[in-house]
TrEMBL record:
Compositionally skewed regions (Basic and acidic residues) per UniProt: 26-43
Localization (cell): Membrane
Native source species: Pseudogymnoascus destructans
Transmembrane segments: 508-531, 543-565, 619-639, 651-670, 757-777, 1181-1200, 1212-1228
Stated name of the protein: ABC transporter domain-containing protein
GO cellular component, one term: membrane
InterPro entries: AAA+_ATPase (IPR003593), ABC2_TM (IPR013525), ABC_trans_N (IPR029481), ABC_transporter-like_ATP-bd (IPR003439), ABCG_dom (IPR043926), ABCG_PDR_1 (IPR034001), ABCG_PDR_2 (IPR034003), P-loop_NTPase (IPR027417)
Keywords, alphabetical: ATP-binding, Membrane, Nucleotide-binding, Transmembrane, Transmembrane helix, Transport
GO molecular function list: ABC-type transporter activity; ATP binding; ATP hydrolysis activity
Recorded topology in the membrane: Multi-pass membrane protein
Alphabetized CDD domains for the sequence: ABCG_PDR_domain1, ABCG_PDR_domain2
Amino acid sequence: MATVPVPGAFGVLSEAQDVAANAIGHHTEPERPVTEDTFHDETDTSSSENSEKHITELARTFTQASIRNEQDEHDNPFASTDPTLDPHNEKFNAQAWTKTLVAITSRDPERYPTRTAGIAYKNLNVHGFGNPMDYQKTFGNYPLEIGGLFNKLRGRGQRKIQILRDFEGLVRSGEMLVVLGRPGSGCSTLLKTISGETNGFFIDQNSTINYQGIAAQQMHNDFRGECIYQAEVDVHFPQLTVGQTLKFAALARAPNNRIPGVSREQYAEHMRDVVMAMFGLSHTINTNVGNDYIRGVSGGERKRVSIAECCVGQSPLQCWDNSTRGLDSATALEFVKTLRLSTNISGATAIVAIYQASQSIYDVFDKVAVLYEGRQIYFGHKYKAKEFFVNLGFDCPERQTTADFLTSLTSPLERIVRPGFEHSTPKTPDEFAGAWHRSADRAELLREIEEFEAEYPIGGAHLEKFKKGRRAQQARGQRIKSPYTISVPMQIKLCVTRGFQRLRGDMSLLFAGIFGNTVMALVIASVFFNLQNNTETLFSKGALLFFAILINAFSSALEILTLFAQRPIVEKHTKYAFYHPFAEAIASMICDMPNKIGSSIFFNITLYFITNLKRTPGAFFTFILFGFSCVMAMSMFFRSIGSMARSLPEALGPAAVIILALIIYTGFTIPTVDMHPWFRWINYIDPVAYAFESLMVNEFSGRKIPCTRFVPRGGDYDLLTLANKVCVTTGAEAGSDVLDGDVWLRVNYGYERSHKWRNLGILWALVVFGCGVHLLTTEWISAKKSKGEVLLFPRGKVPELASAADDEEGAQDDRIDANTLEATATHAAAGEAPPSIQRQTAVFHWQGVNYDIKIKKEPRRLLDDVDGWVKPGTLTALMGVSGAGKTTLLDVLASRVTMGVVTGQMLVDGRQRDSGFQRKTGYVQQQDLHLATSTVREALTFSALLRQPKATPRAEKIAYVDEVIKVLEMETYAEAVVGVPGEGLNVEQRKRLTIGVELAAKPALLLFLDEPTSGLDSQTAWSIIALLRKLANNGQAILCTIHQPSAILFQEFDRLLFLAKGGRTVYFGDVGQNSSILTDYFVRNGARPCGVEENPAEWMLEVIGAAPGSTTTVDWPVAWNESDEKAEVRAQLADMRRELIEKDVETDPTSLNEYAAPMGQQLGTVTQRVFQQFWRTPSYLYSKTFLCVSTGLFIGFSFWDSPTSMQGIQNQLFSIFMLLTIFGNLVQQMMPHFVRLPLTSLDLL
């Protein structure tokens, strides 16, 4: 049923199919097609497809029947004492839990109505506007874009780019579709189109999409959370724990028609615990999710958190975009099986794009779609796909998985043509699509689509049934057309709770803000210390109040950065229909109150009493009140700017100019009486001006201020009586020794006592107005989306291929993209040894490596007694479940850890690692971190110049870069700009560049690689591993972590180091031919034999109990420690220490230097790169130029033609002061660049 709260429990699918098979007297293997003979009583079942459909329906029927028959035997899973239903118990059984829940919900179909949403689409065409290739913008050529802007406004200049063309498909409720294709083929676009994520592209009007009787617009507006898209990237609040993140998702989608007696809190906590148990996350419940800056769970675990967050949403139509990225093979398979269970039991529909699908994963699906550069070249049953292409003349090699075979067809260099078909097989995407359009399979698909549309017409009975199911889940009072499950007050309450959890998760920000403001108060107070109440201090007190209100006002300026940091998360949750964006905006304002109140109190109290401002309770609390009111008003101002802008530069530039205007027209630097009429209006809308006026009135109104200087004075004038003198301060009365504060305010500033409380009303009116603008813009304005993987080239360096193709293709359908360019590259033969690549001779070996850290003051061991070695010419795989410590081990071996305690021996040829060890090794990180403005060649050259030995001539270093480009087959895009992820190089090209940057350094010892195939399609992954094999054959020593290797990929490795949870060794040794040595070890120690068609990498994770839901009776780390293999490893390590130390030691003294290049060369090379970076970031330079020019003009016109009077001279001084304040705004613009730059630079020097 679609109302089953969690889609999935591992293993139930197999049981359901066994139930069906037993019911008809036959045994059926799960996930495999059956023949006619299996069902000899069914005359209409004539194909494996129909047989499998029939058995799936029987499985679902018999499973539901058996559940209903056993329902009286089950307890409420939310309050049961049965250990098999308790996710905290080791005996927890996901099958039993799911059966129990279905049994309870099936008792009352009226209370728990079903929601299903299959999909049929035909004539689906998707296009965008832009250029598939563009020139790199620089400070010099940016003005040339003005003409392009005019053309764009007139509808010219941008060409229509066809992204998807002539797609048809049908996925019924309860079915699973796998979408295969290389990056750039349109897989993500198809999933986004189905789920309604159409930002940046358009669906043709003649396209037809039918969500089982629901129109596309209605599905994406009224039922948004019922059709979701799970993106490839993982964005979460890093301060939250995994448990808090998942509980929030469960509460946001908690249905109103829960099991009686189960509260929302109980429901959410139980569902959180269940999905965490299912996805192997229970041990991370109190661990921060983390990100690149905050330590948290591993990358694989973070991916599982993203998956679990979607699963608790109970969406009947789910689109998963490469969601297995970063997961180990066993976990990826179990994830797909979870989706299979959801479709079988609840009737959900799952559409999954997978780049690396093993045969086991492929077999779980019902249908497959194959995409080739925006064309659909097959859609149909999974077991018919291979036969379809084989009949076209293509050959599937032995041991190649079906998914790999289908994907290889989209690569001219990978597909294999059978003898005799060389001239008849399709070669281009259009030819493949033509073959599909002429096929009988497509005709059958079109017939099925017509039947589906007849069965489920748009707006028919199923729409009402779907509405009924949705209405049953929604909270009371919620609109039926609202896509959200819970009401707005509940959303706000939920977001507030999460906001305070984030605050508690990182209290340092709160204390840092309060501490910083307190220090500022002390600094300002030291300048205006203990001001006396006389006319000498009038100006000083005015300046003090001016600075006080400015610090209060602009303490919220960095909220713009905070808004943009959390914007991707909020937008993701909005797409999941968790809450309105304005609900999070309200919660954010509430949760920021402790920081605002604390900072305001500490700053204002410290400043007020040290400077000796008016010592009356009323004046003090009024000062606090107006200071806080100004904080709130400016906070709303900055939040409005942040929510109105679609990118950070769009927000920071205007904000800087507006801040300057608010400062100048506060009323202190230019008194209101002296303001020029053309800018006088700014003062009327300036919240700082109203707060400043009230503070001045609060301090001086009603006071008689003693006068300290009179005129005339000096000589005999001092003998005159007071009646003949007057105070020198403006506003003083003749014959009086005191100054009336109200008169002084009126004469000098135009301030009135009656304005004080009026201004408070105006301030809070501005708060309300700003809040309203912020909430509205948050709800309706989304962040700027990427333009897609469009190659950028510097002017004059566009490859000739692109120019020629551009002329031939024309403007209608220009598809020169990364794949096209790559396909024309000259590929070196696999295994060909590049003679010029650095050969390595040293052996790196380690023994008894342990790594201990403290997490929340509790010691934790991440690596436990790990042994191993990497020899030149060998390719060693480092594998294990997510969170086993693979990346941690690489960091420890590469001397990259900066915290914790590392023990054990890590030696190079029997000697301790020296200070030059890091620069003699290459480390390819999982994240592809590059300077976005550099070209591929420049990135490689930068690494070569700074990391190769000083003695190597510069010309030789440059020549070596050319060799690296050839080895990595990057000639066609060597001059392309790297760009940011999503704009510039595609995934594969970035990964090749990451490897190339390390190769260009000529690592003398070894090469570390962390997940080099993560996120790549199977063909690209194969090309990367083939490249590593080529490098190893040439003498490179390589240690590489890998998650999801196919059987063929796995065979490329020479040795394997396999880690279990806690960084404990399970196996270290040779892999062997067909993994024979590896499998023999596990079988000898109690594992079941590995099947002939099984992938050893998946089998290995399963038999040790590393996959979620799998168990083992063998303690494999203990078995390894007691094995003969471990003793042999220790013996070989002892031999290495004894024999390798006798090798000749490198005598070059520069080899011990931490850096290869001297300081002067480093400074010159880095300075040149930074100059290039800024020159190629015209938005940054022009925004600074605009800021400086506009600031100068604004200040000039504000202080226009200042007179030579005392006030005029004062105005001129303030104009200089205002000009100096521009540097603070320039620094704010610099901060994002400064934060990003170290990530791309620290590993290169």
